[in-house]
Amino acid sequence: MATREQIEALKIDENVFELAEDTELEYLVHFAAPFTGADKCIVPKGTAFAPHGPMRADALYMHLVEDNEELYNKMEQQVKVEYEDLFTRLQGFSFFITEEQLRTLPLKFRSGSAECLQEIMSMLNSPYTFYKHFYNLALDAYNNGRWQDVIENANTASLVPGNVNSDLYFIRGYAYEQLGYIKKAKENYRCSDSDEAEKALVSLIWG
């Protein structure tokens, strides 16, 4: 399971979509006890959602982008019927979307894409995929001289313990050096066993 820091780094909620037509969606129903049930209803066209975190390997939790009192009232009325004995303990609802639904539901993306969310699911389920994604972003930034982006993406890749390699330490160290953070550059060069890092470190120490 991904850590909180890894989930935040993926910026899942920047992928916002709306329903392109009236659509039946399933959701979880939470009661104090605790007890969780499930229900479904027709959600109207134009309703917007933003996924925000993992539910299970093939699904993400999502929330309504705008308040929709009419929809919530409809859901509450269904709870009165389906869970009559538990209604007074109702605490809320949780929408979710599965990987299959990203391919089959009528969605119109305001930002991001279904492909991006599928890639995010892959990264949430595989620490190496997460690491490789941000390592590649750091490497691309290094090749194009975007030093701050190198550092930010390298730091994110480093959230996966045990995967950080010598190349990542070197390019992060080099980025720090270009920005004038010599102490941090030395620290990264010392963690890398590459010849390039050794030469760079010697140059910094002896000028």
Distance between the termini: 45 Å
For the largest beta-sheet, the strand count, sense and barrel status come to: 7 strands, antiparallel
Structural class: alpha+beta
Low-confidence stretches: none
Order of helices and strands: HEEEEEHEHEHHHHHH
- Anisotropy-based shape: elongated
The gyration radius over C-alpha positions equals: 23 Å
The average pLDDT score comes to 95
Count of β-strands: 7
Strand proportion, as a percent range, falls in 15-25%
| Sequence of strands across the biggest β-sheet | 3-2-6-5-4-1-7
Summarize the amount of helix as a percent range. Answer: 40-55%
**Number of helical segments?**
9
Characterize the structure shown.
There is one protein chain. The protein is built from nine helices and seven strands, in the order αβββββαβαβαααααα. The mean pLDDT is 95. By secondary structure, the protein is of the alpha+beta class. Strands 3-2-6-5-4-1-7 form a seven-stranded antiparallel beta sheet.
Give the topology.
Elements: H1 4-9, E1 16-19, E2 23-31, E3 35-43, E4 48-56, E5 59-64, H2 69-82, E6 90-98, H3 99-104, E7 107-111, H4 114-125, H5 127-143, H6 147-157, H7 166-178, H8 182-191, H9 195-206
Antiparallel strand pairs: 1-4, 1-7, 2-3, 2-6, 4-5, 5-6
Helix pairs in contact: 4-5, 5-6, 5-7, 6-7, 7-8, 8-9
Give a summary of the structure in a few sentences.
This protein is α+β, with helices and mostly antiparallel strands and 207 residues long. Helices cover 49% and strands 25% of the residues. The two termini are 45 Å apart.
